Amino acid sequence: MDNAAKRKANLTSRDMLANLPxxxxxxxxxxxxxxxxxNQNLPSLLGYASFGDLMKATGGKVTNLVYPTxxxxxxxxxxxxxxxxxxxxxxxxxxxxxxxxxGHIFYVxxxxxxxx
Length: 116
Fold this sequence. Notes:
116 residues, alpha+beta, 6 helices, disordered C terminus, PAS, PAS domain-containing protein
């Protein structure tokens, strides 16, 4: 194996997720929009020490990341995106993906500029 191939093989998905310069999460697209996963940048950006602390504070629901008076607007936006089958720009970057184990799920990316 040449040096370039060795370097590429040593870069794991875990490394990439941990070092992306954005905070992101994955959540279900039905029901309560349950948080399935986030990289460590998300709890950090929001002031939590760990993913467990984030889940405890939000009850594991993505809408609980939104200020209470804005939740209905966000819920309407998510519902419209699902009805249209695509995501229109709003407060974050997201992508709707069909995943065999979960059905349709959202991949959501937030950056510091969106949190201020």
